[in-house]
Amino acid sequence: MEVERLPRKAREKAFHRSQILAVALELFKEKGYHNVSIHEIATKTEFSIGTLYKFFKNKEDLYSALIIEKAETVSQIVDEVLSKKDDIENMVKSYIDAKTKVFKDNLDFIRILIIETQKEKGFEKKTHLGKVLHELHQEELKKVASLLEKGIRQKKFKKLNPYHLSIALGGLIDGFMFNWLENSGSHPYEADVSFITEVFFSGCLSPKKTNLSG
Amino acid sequence: MEVERLPRKAREKAFHRSQILAVALELFKEKGYHNVSIHEIATKTEFSIGTLYKFFKNKEDLYSALIIEKAETVSQIVDEVLSKKDDIENMVKSYIDAKTKVFKDNLDFIRILIIETQKEKGFEKKTHLGKVLHELHQEELKKVASLLEKGIRQKKFKKLNPYHLSIALGGLIDGFMFNWLENSGSHPYEADVSFITEVFFSGCLSPKKTNLSG
Amino acid sequence: MEVERLPRKAREKAFHRSQILAVALELFKEKGYHNVSIHEIATKTEFSIGTLYKFFKNKEDLYSALIIEKAETVSQIVDEVLSKKDDIENMVKSYIDAKTKVFKDNLDFIRILIIETQKEKGFEKKTHLGKVLHELHQEELKKVASLLEKGIRQKKFKKLNPYHLSIALGGLIDGFMFNWLENSGSHPYEADVSFITEVFFSGCLSPKKTNLSG
Amino acid sequence: MEVERLPRKAREKAFHRSQILAVALELFKEKGYHNVSIHEIATKTEFSIGTLYKFFKNKEDLYSALIIEKAETVSQIVDEVLSKKDDIENMVKSYIDAKTKVFKDNLDFIRILIIETQKEKGFEKKTHLGKVLHELHQEELKKVASLLEKGIRQKKFKKLNPYHLSIALGGLIDGFMFNWLENSGSHPYEADVSFITEVFFSGCLSPKKTNLSG
DNA sequence: GATGAATGAGTTTTCATTCAT
DNA sequence: GATGAATGAAAACTCATTCAT
Q1: Closest CA to B170 of A197, A187, A173, A137
Q2: Are residues D36 and D53 in contact, defined by beta-carbon separation less than 8 angstroms?
Q3: Closest C-alpha to B65, from B52, B49, B76
Q4: Which pLDDT score is estimated for C182?
Q5: Which residue of A103, B152, B161, C183 shows the fewest CB atoms closer than 10 Å?
């Protein structure tokens, strides 16, 4: 009995935790970190303030947990795409697709992620949150880099530093998506996706291929 | 004598204003908007709180003034570069140079600019600050776009949407510079500059040119 | 046990509330609204500032609650007197007695009531407080008027507009009591009470009655 | 020359002083004492703050001067009426006329007078302002009392304490005028004036006269 | 374990008054 | 003498966090 009881409790606890985070995300998106009070989160989750403090040691901790959880989810989505073996070019396209979709689907989260990423002394690596986000970002860059490297070895891409190329690709995606965000999604984002793909490939595909395809 | 008296006062006032903004920038960079109190700014500037409120009607106003002033300075630097008539390719190179340099020289400012840009429901165009930043950004995109368009007409660049291309270029620059920022300027940023230039041109120069240069 | 628990809490809360109001009244009487800080009320009540703000949403609200509560108490006292069926003349006498006693017992409250009544553009009916006070006053005038009307119908009083007469009676009472207040209660207020009664009756009783009684 | 220069300066000074008081009265009426800043008065008078402080040693002093000046004007109006020798009854009527007219013409002033009169410990006789107002009021009561006394000696009024009668008359006037004020002058005040007169006389005239006139 | 009342440090902002020019 | 920039004490109010029940 006891053996089953704890797991159930644990499951419940995890569920409650995720409920709190979901509500908090909603509120932070809507009003910004400083304009949301613990009291408000407590009321909306229908947990007591004391219970919230059982789950998270303070407001900052709750916020960190929220960001990290989301960032890991996004990371997993990207990982999945990168782990599906396919033709290199298709994989890059899938990556661009996945990233832009994640961006579009999580606009508000992305917004607070950016704020947090830059907030308080930039990538403050002393902060737990800062470290985790830095690592997740660097891991992604490396994974994309290794994909691009494979493409270079297959002579499909020009001989350029693959880590730099992955930064370039990330920059392209972010640039377009921020522009889309700035103009409040006034046009279908798919247009941007195809442009990103076109620009990136026309710059990276090795000359011969370019001529063949062109 | 009287003729000079007012200008001196005005000059002094402007100087004091800039001093306050400089100190405030320093503090905001260091601790973030919400962790800096007016009292602290007053103490550090060695002005009284009341004097601060003579210059700026409230904390938000001081912050806005800070951001807008800096953003306009950056805008002017870019404008200057874009107004010097030269060979298109050199002008693009100069633009990349200028932008990366501005970025490097104003790391901390860029950081709080990003936060502000995304803060509270993204580009909140209802805010004066939000509107001003949005406009400055769009103006820059258009200027770069018109430069690139000229290049396209001169058959130096591929036939791609020039506005989109300017977003792409912006994305590339930001991507690299953020990466550089994230790694706290661990390597000379000039390396990034040349990579940005290379990637951008290899993707944009019209096919013939590519073949000749490759 | 549980059944009693909530009521006890509620009772305690009500008690605390009344304690705060009592202390606040004391302070406002002593120093005036603008010269009493929330901090001071908190210190004197031995509650924290935060607790005060749990009871009242701001300083104005605390003040309003204070005035309205007192005004309603006074209103009830008057109501009680007016509801006891008796000979008309005795009822009027009782009313004068009750009013002067209330006045005497609540000198300081009356003072701030007057201030509030006249404060900021007179009976500002837009304010909740203003409305409530206005209504309470008008209600009282009407009740007294209907009492006097009965007297008129019974031919005990002269045929004068009863509403106007109630204003006159109120004016008489206030005039004497303010004079008494101004001279800091230098003489027993009962002297004033009998004078008010005499003047009012000799002015209102119909000539025949006057002759009979005189 | 010097002999004439000072008087002109003095005249100018007095004029400026009255200008300041006029503007201040306007502002205090409109917004209340605590919502008007010295800065605002300075701006509206087109004098500098420093100059204002040359005329009045502080805000309270300016306020006192304002109230006292007005109160003395009112006092003079009443004095004039009371000094015109006439039939007693006509003089009382004139007094009621004058008082109600003053009330009507100075509604806003009366309002702040009441506030001040009751503000901060009621008739605080320690304050200069308090003392002056108290004295002015008592003087008026005495003058009216001596008028009424004459009427009693002439057997025109009942044998009642004339000082008390003067309080009663004052109370009647104030009661009606406050009611009129409370209802924002919704009806012509002359109606009240005649009612005050009627009530006061029918209550004060000796029975014989009443019978004769009735 | 859960609760939420109580805390009070800390924030932004105002404005009467002074005094160097 | 006139000025008005500078001052800074003091106010109202918020909210993360604690801890007795």
Answers
A1: A173
A2: no
A3: B52
A4: 76
A5: C183
Task: Check residue A55 and report its DSSP letter.
Answer: H
On strand E, nucleotides with any atom < 7 Å from a protein CB are 1-20
What is the mean pLDDT of the segment spanning A176-205?
79
Question: DSSP string covering C92-157, please?
Answer: HHHHHHHHHHHHHHTHHHHHHHHHHHHTTTSS-TTSHHHHHHHHHHHHHHHHHHHHHHHHHHTTSB
Name which of D137, D148, D179, D190 to mutate to probe chain C: the one with the most chain C Cβ atoms within 10 A of its Cβ.
D179
Domain C59-214 CATH (choose: 1.10.3210.10, 1.10.357.10, 1.10.10.650, 3.40.1050.10): 1.10.357.10
Range B66-73, long-range pairs (CB < 8 A, 24+ positions): B66/B21, B66/B24, B66/B25, B66/B28, B67/B112, B67/B113, B67/B116, B67/B129, B67/B133, B68/B129, B68/B132, B68/B133, B69/B21, B70/B25, B70/B106, B70/B109, B70/B113, B71/B113, B71/B132, B71/B133, B71/B136, B72/B136
Q: Give me the helix-helix angle, C162-182 and D128-153, nearest 10°.
A: 120
Confidence of residue B116 (pLDDT cuts 50, 70, 90): low
Residue B121 has what pLDDT? 47
Q: From the list B137, B141, B175, which residue is nearest A171 (CB)?
A: B175
Task: Record the pTM.
Answer: 0.82
pLDDT of residue D45 exceeding 60: yes
In the structure, how many helices (H) and strands (E) does chain B have? 10, 0
Task: Quote the distance between the C-alpha of residue D185 and its chain's center.
Answer: 19
Is B171 within 8 Å of chain A by CB?
Answer: yes
Q: Does C207 touch chain D (CB under 8 A)?
A: yes
The pLDDT of residue D95 is: 95
Mean pLDDT of chain C: 82
Residue pLDDT, tens place only, A84-109: 888 988 999 999 999 999 988 887 77
Which parts of A84-127 fold into alpha helices (H)? Answer: 88-105, 107-118
Question: What is the rounded distance in angstroms from the CA atom of residue D129 to the CA atom of residue C101?
Answer: 29
Count the Cβ atoms, other than its own, within 10 Å of residue C214.
Answer: 9
Indicate left, alpha or beta for D9 from its phi (over 0: left) and psi (-120 to 50: alpha): alpha
Output the average pLDDT for chain A: 83
In chain D, where does the domain assigned CATH 1.10.357.10 lie?
59-214
Residue with more model confidence, B200 or C9? B200
Residues of chain C with Cβ-Cβ distance to D118 below 8 Å are 111-112, 114-115
- The residue whose two tokens read 């938000």 is B60
- Minimum Cα–Cα distance from C214: chain D residue: D207
CATH assignment of A1-56? 1.10.10.60
A91 phi-psi bin (left φ>0, alpha ψ -120 to 50, beta other):
alpha
**Residue ranges of chain D that CATH labels 1.10.10.60:** 1-56
Give the integer Cα–Cα distance in Å for B123 and B119.
8
Per DSSP, the residues of B4-27 read HHHHHHHHHHHHHHHHHHHHHHHH
pLDDT tens digits, residue range D157-172? Answer: 888 889 999 999 999 9
- Mean pLDDT over each residue of chain D, to the nearest integer: 83
* Interface residue B202 vs chain A (CB under 8 A): yes
The answer to whether B70 and B113 have CB atoms below 8 angstroms apart is yes
pLDDT, one tens digit per residue, over D180-204 is 877 766 777 888 888 898 888 876 5
Sign, CA torsion B85/B86/B91/B97: negative
Which structure tokens are listed for B162?
A: 């020039």
Calculate the average pLDDT of chain B. 82
Closest nucleotide C1' to the C-alpha of B34: E11
Chains B and D touch (3+ CB pairs under 8 A): no
Neighbours of D94 (CB within 10 A): 16
C-alpha A187/C-alpha B201 separation (Å) is: 27
